C-alpha cells in the first residue's frame, strides 16, 4: 500500500486565492499501516467571518495566538510529501494548500484523490455524496463536524469502509479511472491540470512567444475554468479548429471572477484588447454605428447615421440598432422601407429632386410622402413603428452604476464597463481612468442585468458580498 494522507482544512471562506486557512487536520497512513494524526490551528492574518465562526466553532480569539501558515509550512509539507493526498472535495483543500505554499514561493504538488468522486464511482446508485451523507450511509463515527482533524478522521473511516464493502479489484478499477489524466496538447506542462481553478472566470490560451511577447490564441469564459479548459482538449480529435488550437498552445493563463457577470465582461474586454487569432466573436468594431432621428420640421423625422462610439446614452435615447458598418445599417433600413411602404427619399436612401417621386413611389411601394400625397407626420409614425424593435435601451440611472457580484462590484457607465473593484480606492482609480469607447457586446451583456444596477451616487462604498 502506498503512503496516504487524509486531509481536511478549515478556512475563512471558499475562495482559495483570497481566503486563508484557519486549521489543518492530517491523518497519515504509512505503507505498513501505521497511523499518525496531526491537528494545527493557524492564524489566518485576517478576520474570520461570523458565519464561519458559527459553522466551525473556530473563533478569532482561538487563532489569535496560533502560528501563521508560514510557521507551520515546513511541518505540513513534511507530513504530505510522498503521499497520496486524499480529501473530500479535494480540489478545495488542495487548492488552499497550493495557494498558501505559493505565497511562500513553494510549488506544492501531490497526487490527489477526491473521496466525493470515489464515492460516486463506487456507489452510483446514491445521489448525495457529501460528508454528512457518507456518515449516515456507512455508519461512520462522527465525534465532531467542521473541525479539521475530525473530518479527516471521517475520510479515513470511509476509506476503511470501502475496503470492507468492495473487492480490491473494484477499488483498484475506481482508483485507476479517477487517476486517469486527460490528454493534453504536446507542448503544455502537465502540471497545469493541478493548478486550474474550478470557479468562474476567463481563461487565455497563448502560442509560441514572438519578439513582441506571447501570441494570444484564444480567450474564453467559463463557470468552471478547469472543466471548460479540459473540454477543449477532449474535443481536439473531432474538431479541426480545436486540433489546430491544441497544436499551437504553449501556455494557459486565467483570471478568476466572482461570478458569471464578471466573466462575461472580462471576456468581451480582453478579446478586443488582445485580438486572439482564434476568436471570431466579440472582436473590435471601429465602424459601429446606429440610426438616430433628426427633426426636419413639419412632422418629418429623418434617419441619420451616427457613430455609436460618440454617443452619450445618458442623454440621447432615440438610437435604433447597432450595426457593424454603414452598409449593414443601410441594408436594414432599406428592408424596413420595403416592409412598411416607406419613402426612400425621405429616409435618405435615394437622392431625388424636391417634389419628384422616389423609385418606390413609381412602383407603388411608397405611399407618396415624397410628392405630398402622404403627410410627413403619418410617414414618420410608420417609420417610428418600424424602428421600434431596434430601439436601444436608454441608460437607466443618472451617472455611473454598480453591479454587485460576490465581494466585488462592477463599475459601469452609459453601457460601458469601467472595471471591477473591491473597495472605494479601486473605484476611484477606475473613475479617474475615464470611460472606454462604447462596445456592442458590453451593451448586450449589461442590458440583461439592468435590474441589478445601483446608482453609484446612492451607495458610494462597495457593499459586502451578497
CATH topology of the largest domain: Nucleotidyltransferase, domain 5
- How many domain modules? 4
CATH architecture of the largest domain: 2-Layer Sandwich
How many strand segments? 15
Count of helical segments? 17
Biggest sheet record: 5 strands, mixed
The whole-angstrom Rg is 30 Å
How helix-rich are the residues, as a percent range?
25-40%
Question: CATH-wise, what's the superfamily of the largest domain?
Answer: Ribonuclease H-like superfamily/Ribonuclease H
Give the structural class: alpha+beta
Rough shape?
elongated
What is the straight-line distance between the termini? 46 Å
Strand content: 15-25%
What is the spatial order of strands in the main beta sheet?
Answer: 3-2-1-4-5
Q: Ranges with pLDDT <50 over ≥5 residues?
A: none
Whole-number average pLDDT?
A: 90
Give the oligomeric state. single chain
CATH class of the largest domain: Alpha Beta
Which helices and strands appear, and what pairs or packs with what?
Elements: E1 4-11, E2 21-29, E3 35-41, H1 50-56, H2 60-64, H3 69-80, E4 84-87, H4 90-103, E5 112-114, H5 115-122, H6 131-138, H7 148-165, H8 168-179, H9 192-195, E6 201-206, E7 216-222, H10 225-234, H11 240-248, E8 251-256, H12 260-274, E9 289-295, E10 301-307, E11 319-323, H13 326-340, H14 359-362, H15 376-387, E12 401-405, E13 408-413, E14 416-421, H16 424-432, H17 440-447, E15 453-455
Parallel strand pairs: 1-4, 4-5
Antiparallel strand pairs: 1-2, 2-3, 6-7, 6-8, 9-10, 9-11, 12-13, 12-15, 13-14
